[in-house]
Design goal:
The structure holds 2 protein chains of 2 kinds. By secondary structure, chain A is of the alpha/beta class. Chain A contains 13 helices and 9 strands. In chain B, strands 2-1-3-4 form a 4-stranded parallel beta sheet, sandwiched between helices. Classes of the chains: A alpha/beta, B alpha/beta.
């Protein structure tokens, strides 16, 4: 009997998710033993045409990471959806846009201006990439940018979500074990649409720091402060995204002395990640006077960037007005 | 004047959140006193302005509202002692985030109104509607619509 087939793809992402998968150490041998890896551009040579030739549903497990930045991303997402039985939205980019999704604050024009015509760019003729260009041998094409970056589930149907930037390796190993057990009839897969490889609570629940329900008179930046290593960072005025972020990382950043930046995405039941953080951050402000509240808030230099660092494309508003108008 | 789509003035859709104890009573007072004010605000009653989760506001804008009104008891008069101060802190932070998203500060308004202030409530709403009318439609749902997924089979996309 042939082995079940495995695919992994990257769309708009950094490649960290692939490294996280390889970082499961010797368990990668279990993946190799249980699956036939048929398509994984980072790790092996395979062509899109190979995937197109497959039967629908021929791939058993597809880990898809990266957001939908251009039409090539969307095309491969739709193709792999068709060819895969289990489509996992893998990592923060696919689930909620992540860092590439921060481009949703800017219009395409601003993005291209920043890339091709700032003072640090050596581009005297102001050359811009053309999506289609005629050469003697024929027409060359490159993918077309979408006006805004979309999440995977805004383009195709997704079976499971696995958050994290990247997902923690121990969580990936647990999911691999579960899928292999399920294929052997020894375990049941969770219901469709479930978030796998993560907790159901918030990072605060895994954070070892002590909360005293303290309020603050100013927000500060962690590198400019002497933070108490045993106390809640937010209650010391350090912007920490723990209260709205899904657990699953063992509170890694606050344990190490850094604030949570929210890479595991919205916690269970959180509809809009940034909106939840607005409530959380506002609750530590110690003032009843509008002018003083504004002065304290001036300490948060870029609130939208702070609250939507990983989640802008997956938020209720999805993109700023400038980006949506193109 | 005929009411064709070209000549009809823009009528903003405004979602208003009121608290059960003061601002909703103010709206009620305006109603039973038969005061006339702009009909553009759709009121949603919460128990307290402190119950206002900014998610409600984001959802209203994402769903096509042109503006959002948040109203509660005057500072110091909250039925739950200090929750309207919480609403105020949230509102200030929320307005900053919305501005970064391109939603003008003039599209959100925080209004304190006691149960006796029906006239003030009605006047402020009429004023707010005129301010939003000047800002024009927001149309977040319509701008975002072309970005929503369109079902196209994989082969056609490739062609």
């Amino acid at each position: 009997m042939s082995k079940p087939k495995f695919a992994m793809y990257w769309a708009a992402s950094c490649g960290g998710c692939e490294i996280a998968v390889l970082n499961i150490h010797e368990k990668i041998l279990d993946v190799d033993a249980a699956f036939d890896v048929v398509f994984w551009p980072v790790a092996m040579d395979a062509k899109y045409a190979d995937v197109e030739k497959m039967e629908d549903g021929e791939i058993t497990l597809c880990l898809f990471n990266g957001g939908m930045r251009n039409d090539e991303n969307e095309h491969i997402a739709k193709l792999l959806r068709k060819k895969s039985k289990i489509m996992v939205s893998f990592g923060s980019c696919a689930c909620e846009g992540c860092i590439p999704g921060l481009a949703n604050f800017s219009s395409i024009k601003d993005l291209l201006d920043t890339a091709f015509s700032t003072i640090t760019t050596d581009n005297p003729d102001n050359i811009r990439p053309q999506t289609s260009y005629s050469v003697p041998e024929g027409i060359l094409t490159i993918p077309t940018l979408n006006p805004v970056l979309k999440t995977l589930d805004q383009v195709v149907d997704v079976d499971y979500y696995m958050p994290g930037c990247p997902p923690e390796s121990h969580q990936i190993a647990a999911v691999v074990d579960l899928v292999i057990a399920a294929l052997n009839g020894k375990a049941e897969l969770p219901p469709k649409g479930a978030t796998i490889g993560a907790g159901n609570s918030t990072v605060c629940d895994e954070c070892p720091r002590t909360r005293n329900v303290k309020v603050i008179k100013e927000f500060g930046r962690i590198q400019l402060m002497h933070a108490d290593p045993t106390l809640c960072l937010l209650e010391q005025g350090i912007p920490c995204n723990g209260p709205a972020t899904r657990s699953g990382c063992n509170g890694r950043c606050p344990t190490a002395g850094a604030q949570c930046i929210g890479c595991y995405g919205p916690a269970e039941g959180v509809v809009d990640y940034g909106a939840r953080l607005i409530s959380a951050f506002a609750s530590v402000i110690d003032s009843d006077k509008p002018e003083e509240i504004d002065k304290i808030l001036d300490g948060l230099v870029d609130p939208a960037g702070q609250f939507y660092r990983f989640n802008l494309a997956g938020s209720l508003l999805r993109a700023s007005k400038a980006a949506q108008k193109g | 004047m005929t009411d064709t789509p070209e000549t009809k003035p823009f009528e903003p859709v405004i979602i208003g959140f009121t608290c059960n104890w003061c601002s909703y009573r103010a709206a009620d007072m305006a109603g039973i006193s038969r005061m006339k004010y702009a009909p553009n605000v759709r009121l949603i009653r919460l128990m307290c302005s402190g119950r206002l989760d900014p998610t409600f506001v984001f959802k209203a804008f994402a769903g096509g509202a042109d503006a959002v009104l948040v109203s509660g008891c005057h500072p110091g008069d909250c039925h739950y002692s200090t929750q309207n101060y919480k609403a105020m802190r949230r509102f200030h932070l929320m307005q900053r985030v919305l501005t970064q998203m391109g939603i003008e500060p003039g599209r959100t308004k925080l209004l304190w109104a006691s149960a006796a202030e029906g006239q003030i409530f009605a006047n402020e709403i009429t004023k707010f509607v005129e301010e939003v009318r000047l800002l024009g439609p927001l149309n977040w749902n319509k701008i975002a619509a072309p970005l929503l997924p369109v079902e196209v089979p994989a082969e056609e996309v490739h062609a």
